[in-house]
């Protein structure tokens, strides 16, 4: 009996011991400040996770936890009776904050996507298209091999808030968007892309359809001394080549990074063997210098220049003789531990684009010679304060500014009359393109994040934008259209509220509503009888446009499961959204106006930008992934959007079709390989008013890619793109324009490259 009682007491004592908890405080190792919101994950059971409440962690004795906090080195701790009651975490070297915080569920905005490091596992030379091609929900608006704009959920151009490094912008100078923001950066310098899928954050400028932040490659923390890497690549289709060199010097206080890139792309052949005018050359370089006053304070200067030469645009009326841009930005960040004011961020930047386009390589050059020097200046910045009002309450307040100005003309020398007879002497004309215009946006914002409990976060934000615009040198006919033309001031109010719920350590649910407001861009306001669309119509701006509004609702769910056996892991996710638009901006044929240039040519009536009364879009994205046999991974993604212009009973323009992607990857030791299948459906939902008159057929593409680490630091890559040489074009591609001398009809769309073999080598030292 005594033996039985002893056994019972021993078991009871053991159970009680293991049921006991120990209270732990977590402090900053330097300032001794208590850290709130520390995250602890049980290493034996990831479903057991803790968030500090009342500034302490209650952890089970006998368990091992990973203690982590943003900006600090994580600590692994085995809890027992002798464990310390206070844990000190060391602050990591200060880096300028990004929009997203690398998977910190209580600090990231809702409805976000972050790509893996785009500088890793490359197998072919990078073009700007490679930045967005593999992000679910994205499409590419192409006018050639250079002027490529991202499209996301049928939002495009200024409907997307596209920026570098949390706020820096470079706006295009060309009215035909020969030089979108993606052309002013080296793709190799972009480490990752962060996306907020709607107007769900107020902190980074006015956001209508989504926020896209391209994050530059940064100095590697703790990698002191001199280092760098060099790469070279080749593509068979077009005989294209890419060269890149990156050098870095870093010490505890100072780091300097410099990059140089050269790319020479030739005309490619499509799947039918036709040569598509698409060649270009570019040289880019940048210099980034950072100084750490302490582990909590950093100042960074970034200088970047890009030079494009002899850029051919198969789907635009002219080509780019040169496209030069310069950008300078200054960033400051300071963390203030132990204070209600926790962080200070400041950014200022300036960019300038000098662009020249001409028709000297086109068939109509003998009839009329056209040269257009244009320029764009973008300046701005942001200032933000982060406040810790309570253990579970964080408030962001701040202000930002975006100042855009453009000017430029088209110089025409008409050599023949409409009957084809030569004019002697030729007649010269000067057409005002931008009419010396500007748009200045000054914003104020506040965004609050409150932890309702250890698994739920409520986020709410408001934003006010004061938008001031003016046209300082209007053409006489534009002045006649709008006789009361004067500077204009708009007041825009945006807001968002969202809820993020961690169901358990592996499953997350998100609800969000956002009201994003966007004032009309400069093309929509001030363009005057220029062809800036996919169709052959002349377009006329409207300085009286109301700001368009996106009221977007979204629900998203993500989950994962770690398994034992042949299947190692499952990942899944889905998102469903609906947007109701107010004052959506489109261009509609105006029968009261007539064509200005070549007045006898069809179509005779131009388009004028107007506001719609009734428009909406809805859609979804879904993904599924499975890791198996330790080295294999299969991923499937699908995205669909349906957009409707009820005023004209048609689709909204540039709405992509259903897209799917299937990828099988193998990765073991120094070798990896992947096969991608892209399936794009037919698009028969058309915006005929935009020039979308024929359904675009679907297509399937297969790519093969592989890479091998030959020696430490030396990586080789190869790929076969469009392996079966399919002739295809995407619904978002523009039509061929002014390509009679290349035997390409303006009745068909730009076709994409056919089969392409690539080689790539990268060496890091």
Automatic annotation (TrEMBL):
Residues 113-207 form the TonB-dependent receptor plug domain. Gene3D superfamilies: TonB-dependent receptor, beta-barrel domain, TonB-dependent receptor, plug domain. GO terms for molecular function: siderophore uptake transmembrane transporter activity. It comes from the Bacteria. The keyword Repeat does not apply. GO terms for biological process: siderophore transmembrane transport. It holds the Pfam family Plug. One of its GO terms (cellular component) is cell outer membrane. Residues 1-21 form the signal peptide. It is found in: Cell outer membrane. Keywords: Cell outer membrane, Membrane, Signal, TonB box, Transmembrane, Transmembrane beta strand, Transport. InterPro entries: Beta-barrel_TonB, Beta-barrel_TonB_sf, Plug_dom, Plug_dom_sf, TonB-dep_rcpt-like. The keyword Lipoprotein does not apply. It is a multi-pass membrane protein. Its main location: membrane. Residues 278-722 form the TonB-dependent receptor-like beta-barrel domain. Belongs to the TonB-dependent receptor family. This is Iron complex outermembrane recepter protein. It comes from Psychroflexus sediminis.
